[in-house]
Amino acid sequence: MVSPGPLRLAFLGCGFITRVHSRHVRALRPAIVASYASRDAAKAESFRRRYGGVESFNSYEAAIASSNVDAVVVAVPPRFHLDLTLKALAAGKHVLVEKPALVRTEDYRTVIEARTRAIRTVLVGENDHYKPLAVRLRTMLRNGVIGDLVFSHFVTVARRLKTQDDWRNDEAMAGGDAFFEEGIHWLHLAGSLGPRIVRIEGFRPSRSSSGPDRRAKSMMVAFEYDTGAVGSLYYSREIPSLLLGLRVSKLFGRSGVITFESNGICVWARGRGIPRLVIPGVIDIRGYRAMYRDFLRAIATGAAPEMSLERALDDHLLMDRVYATMERGVATAAVR
Prior knowledge:
The protein is α/β, with parallel strands linked by helices. It is 34% helix and 23% strand. The chain folds into two domains: 7-120, Rossmann fold, CATH 3.40.50; 129-285 and 317-328, Dihydrodipicolinate Reductase, domain 2. It has ten helices and 14 strands. The two termini are 37 Å apart.
């Protein structure tokens, strides 16, 4: 059980994404206090000092076993997510596991069973689900600002190559290519706006063999919603874009169009009512603080978090269909 007072959270892994999380967790004090675990004790202690943590651990297992830890954040490469999540649940800890949470479909079912036995909360760290842009788009569609949705068009294109020694270059470590490891955030956004994706197909352009970033880094996805609307997602981490990542996406309805900067800087809506320019929110533009607030709520109430394992499994099944159609040459595939 969670002790009275703040949630005592231990980060398993001290890399880039833990730095991102830590900046937002620090803003949520005193509701959350953080500790840090790494296989490198000096690195864990460095993170503790830098972010004002309460304790450091020289192994992930030590943090999981500690009576001073209520919950863990699994912030290591996807290859290790399953093992650490199961160990944490067996030790009675709540878990926030980074996205993509698990590599295989059966892994989700294994963790769902372990979560049920442990009676603990597991939240999948899909921060894009919580970001102000996603919340605003869901509200606009629900309120019929552009009428019936006809087309959706998502663009996330930027030249962000990894170095040769980056773990993401190892598909066994990352769970897959760039689209699997990072594009899943955008696939979730496309499928989280209200209508449900029921058909999907992936197209991967020719793969570049030059440079240190050896991954497949581009993907185009076409899909159909249960409402009859259709959409596309253009993802790349090898194509230059305006201002190193500025890009524009659109939602087309029978009564108007919503145009938005894909990262969430602004939204321009022309539809029912007067045209409007909206700034969804800049303080928590990536949704991390809202995600942690949902984690706290779910732990306190025993209710499921918005980004539950079941919701993440839906995304994973879509991802499976993308690769199945691409690799097997299937014209279309229905999501069951």
